[in-house]
Amino acid sequence: MIWPFKPFDRSRPGSEGTIGTIYGMIVAQAREPAFYADLGVPDTVDGRFDLVVLHLWMVLRRLGTVGDSAKLAQGLFDHFCGDMDANLREMGVGDIVVPKRMQAFGEAFYGRAAAYDAALADGGEALARALDKNVYNGRDPEDARRLAAYVETSVAALARVDVAALKAGPRPFAALDPQ
User: Do residues 135 and 144 make contact, with C-beta atoms less than 8 angstroms apart?
Assistant: First the structure.
């Protein structure tokens, strides 16, 4: 499933508070220390970006199964793009470079989303391989397997969550297993 990337669309369909709540939940989950301490995700800008993208993909995947959630999904993706833009500027990236970096972020998101969608459809070790490549840079297949188990459990948990409950803000992701 591919979500449209509209970098110049400034409309914000749906409640900005709802979108902010869902995005805040995604970022909070991606910042859980266990990902970095127990699952070996690199505690770097890239590692944190990969976890935000992973969790955003899971939520957008869920929203894509609900007929009337297209505007909410687009608003959530736009919020992500705005957050990435703001982070680049906070890190001192200049106005000339920001659009190129934003394009790279969009390409990274779409590439990872396509890889994760295909891997889930393939089953077995495919998701672990995709996570090892994208999150661990091919260096840790065992941690990637553990992260894949978390993702599969989270995708299943999200499938059981009503979109109205998702809008309320509790984290619908699986518990992290430090083992």
Answer: yes
Q: For residues 128 and 145, is the Cβ–Cβ distance under 8 A?
A: yes
Tell me the chain's radius of gyration from C-alpha atoms.
Answer: 16
Distance CA 2, CA 61 (A): 9
pLDDT per position as a tens digit, 124-175: 899 999 999 999 999 989 999 999 999 999 999 999 988 888 877 667 888 8
Q: Does pLDDT of 13 surpass 60?
A: no
> pTM of the prediction?
0.84
User: CA neighbours within 13 Å on the CB side: how many for 92?
Assistant: 0
Q: How far apart are CA 67 and CA 147, in angstroms?
A: 29
* 119 CA to centre of own chain: 15
What residue type is 172 in one-letter code? P
